[in-house]
Amino acid sequence: MIHFLATYGTQLISKTGQHLYISAAALALGVIVAVPLGILLTRMKHGANFVITLAGVLQTIPAMALLAMMIPIFGIGSTPAIVALFIYSLLPILRNTYLGMQGVSPTVRDAAKGMGMTWWQMMLRAEIPLAAPVIMAGIRLSATYVIAWATLASYIGAGGLGDFIFNGLNLYRSDLILGGSIPVILLALIVDYLLGKLETAVTPRQLR
Amino acid sequence: MLLSMEHLRKEYPNGKVAVDDFNLEVDRGEFIAFIGTSGSGKTTTMRMINRMLNQTSGTIKINDKDISKMDPVKLRRSIGYVIQNIGLMPHMTIQENIEIVPKLLGWSKEKRAKQAHKMIELAQLPDEMLQRYPGELSGGQQQRIGVVRALAADQEIILMDEPFGALDPITRESLQDLVKHLQEDLGKTFIFVTHDMDEALHLATKVVIMSQGKQVQVDTPENILRHPANEFVTNLIGEERLIRAQPNILSVSQIMLKNPVAITPDKTLDDAIDVMHDRRVDTLLVTDANGVLQGYIDLDDINRTTDPHTPISELTNEKVFYVKADSLIGDTVDRILKQGVKNVPVVDKQKRLVGIVTRTALVDIVYDALRGAPEADETPASPINADIHAAATHEGGDTEK
């Protein structure tokens, strides 16, 4: 263990950094696209089912296949990995945003509008805060997925902790396999824990 | 005129007419109740006032300004809005909830806080409650907050859409008292949608009865009880409620017997006895040639005199108790019953005799009002009940005679 850290310590830190960077970038893109899209879907009479089904179809594409499909478009490196993981992160965030916004009682919406809130004020002061716990649960779920799947990104040259695991597989060295997978698990658990904290923080006291 | 609505019409794209030719003038401090069956257009009409819905045609003016030319957001901030399911923001404290509109209007933090304290006092709730969340309060307390929140930015008009529909009767009553107090003491104007007739009659200064998008009757609660415009209104008010309200709306002239037995003072005792014998009565009212009530003569008084030629004027008991034809039964019934007389003469404004009220007729009305329905309306549930019922009626009849 100490020997492993002494040999691969610096590499471990930089790979973890890459892993985090790929995951965070994909997740951030996912949030930026899926949350507004989910909100928009609740305002539309038709189309919501179609869009959510489409996101569901994307989810079913095998991770390796999706990553491989990105190579002709984006080449190799972290860009295709980020795009592929971003596509994966969409569905949980989109679906939870949609459900969360739908779950805001029409009474609250009616009262907010009737008191003279503008569309933006209704969104920012009433609907999004009330839907936030459900939206956050979706983001949290996506984050765990993305961190786990980012391991595969190593295959298309994006780097990350996957490099350890694949090297270990090729060289038949279990210390490298464990040295890659344990940090991934820890990373996923820590991020999940932190996002869980955030989820509680955005949940109104009364709804906890 | 604070609020005026002219030829208001709301038609939905599918051709359904929700409101048709609605006209109403509302003065400051009035309490208007919209009442009707579901689908009568009462809520639709109310929601057009703060432009939650836009009318198809017609105009709504507030302080002579056409609201269709105003910014709907600004308009809504100037009108209080209370809805049935309370509509407090569950993620905000009571204080934040009360401060919503003042905050939208850009009031300073201090001014908002001061207002919140004032409002919670108005709601008759403890000040500490400001820091609580809506979910920690009972339904009645929440709606109290809902009501005062609608006044927090000094709104003049408050719209209420069945605000107390979901509350239990006791809580409802205390909230009705609260809004009545706000209307009477603070001079706020309320537009109140309800399907509870008792509530409408209790609170409103003017009741608007609606059916299928049209106004059926617009009047004070008293006038609606007294003169329901048609059968729909009668049904909506309910037979029972009309009967209960009878003592307060029926006038003496409506229940009196016309053509009472009377005699003029220039006749003699002989004539009087003849008339009494003919009509089988033991008292006679005495009126002068113009029909003005002078007094009465009683069989007891007659027995004590021997001379059959005594003129009536000498026998007349002038201490006669009478009631005016246009007075309400509710106001006179106690006095009549306390006198302990069988019949009471009814006079018009010139004190001319126009009829008599019998004690029996009065007692019937009082019983109906207490019981809520005329006895004939009760359908016996079983033959046994029917027998008891018949016996009871019979006995009642006997004592009354």
Automatic annotation (TrEMBL), chain A:
<feature type="transmembrane region" description="Helical">
    <location>
        <begin position="130"/>
        <end position="156"/>
    </location>
</feature>
<keyword id="KW-1133">Transmembrane helix</keyword>
<dbReference type="GO" id="GO:0005886">
    <property type="term" value="C:plasma membrane"/>
</dbReference>
<feature type="transmembrane region" description="Helical">
    <location>
        <begin position="20"/>
        <end position="41"/>
    </location>
</feature>
<feature type="transmembrane region" description="Helical">
    <location>
        <begin position="73"/>
        <end position="91"/>
    </location>
</feature>
<dbReference type="GO" id="GO:0031460">
    <property type="term" value="P:glycine betaine transport"/>
</dbReference>
<comment type="similarity">
    <text>Belongs to the binding-protein-dependent transport system permease family.</text>
</comment>
<dbReference type="GO" id="GO:0055085">
    <property type="term" value="P:transmembrane transport"/>
</dbReference>
<feature type="transmembrane region" description="Helical">
    <location>
        <begin position="176"/>
        <end position="195"/>
    </location>
</feature>
<dbReference type="InterPro" id="IPR035906">
    <property type="entry name" value="MetI-like_sf"/>
</dbReference>
<protein>
    <submittedName>
        <fullName>Glycine betaine/carnitine/choline ABC transporter, permease protein</fullName>
    </submittedName>
</protein>
<keyword id="KW-0812">Transmembrane</keyword>
<keyword id="KW-0813">Transport</keyword>
<feature type="transmembrane region" description="Helical">
    <location>
        <begin position="48"/>
        <end position="67"/>
    </location>
</feature>
<dbReference type="InterPro" id="IPR000515">
    <property type="entry name" value="MetI-like"/>
</dbReference>
<dbReference type="InterPro" id="IPR051204">
    <property type="entry name" value="ABC_transp_perm/SBD"/>
</dbReference>
<dbReference type="Pfam" id="PF00528">
    <property type="entry name" value="BPD_transp_1"/>
</dbReference>
<feature type="domain" description="ABC transmembrane type-1">
    <location>
        <begin position="16"/>
        <end position="195"/>
    </location>
</feature>
<keyword id="KW-0472">Membrane</keyword>
Automatic annotation (TrEMBL), chain B:
<dbReference type="InterPro" id="IPR005892">
    <property type="entry name" value="Gly-betaine_transp_ATP-bd"/>
</dbReference>
<dbReference type="GO" id="GO:0006865">
    <property type="term" value="P:amino acid transport"/>
</dbReference>
<dbReference type="GO" id="GO:0016887">
    <property type="term" value="F:ATP hydrolysis activity"/>
</dbReference>
<keyword id="KW-0067">ATP-binding</keyword>
<dbReference type="GO" id="GO:0005886">
    <property type="term" value="C:plasma membrane"/>
</dbReference>
<dbReference type="InterPro" id="IPR046342">
    <property type="entry name" value="CBS_dom_sf"/>
</dbReference>
<dbReference type="InterPro" id="IPR017871">
    <property type="entry name" value="ABC_transporter-like_CS"/>
</dbReference>
<comment type="subunit">
    <text>The complex is probably composed of two ATP-binding proteins, two transmembrane proteins and a solute-binding protein.</text>
</comment>
<dbReference type="InterPro" id="IPR003439">
    <property type="entry name" value="ABC_transporter-like_ATP-bd"/>
</dbReference>
<protein>
    <recommendedName>
        <fullName>Quaternary amine transport ATP-binding protein</fullName>
        <ecNumber>7.6.2.9</ecNumber>
    </recommendedName>
</protein>
<keyword id="KW-0813">Transport</keyword>
<feature type="region of interest" description="Disordered">
    <location>
        <begin position="376"/>
        <end position="401"/>
    </location>
</feature>
<feature type="domain" description="CBS">
    <location>
        <begin position="256"/>
        <end position="314"/>
    </location>
</feature>
<keyword id="KW-0547">Nucleotide-binding</keyword>
<dbReference type="InterPro" id="IPR027417">
    <property type="entry name" value="P-loop_NTPase"/>
</dbReference>
<dbReference type="InterPro" id="IPR003593">
    <property type="entry name" value="AAA+_ATPase"/>
</dbReference>
<feature type="domain" description="CBS">
    <location>
        <begin position="315"/>
        <end position="375"/>
    </location>
</feature>
<dbReference type="Pfam" id="PF00005">
    <property type="entry name" value="ABC_tran"/>
</dbReference>
<keyword id="KW-0997">Cell inner membrane</keyword>
<dbReference type="GO" id="GO:0005524">
    <property type="term" value="F:ATP binding"/>
</dbReference>
<dbReference type="GO" id="GO:0015418">
    <property type="term" value="F:ABC-type quaternary ammonium compound transporting activity"/>
</dbReference>
<dbReference type="GO" id="GO:0031460">
    <property type="term" value="P:glycine betaine transport"/>
</dbReference>
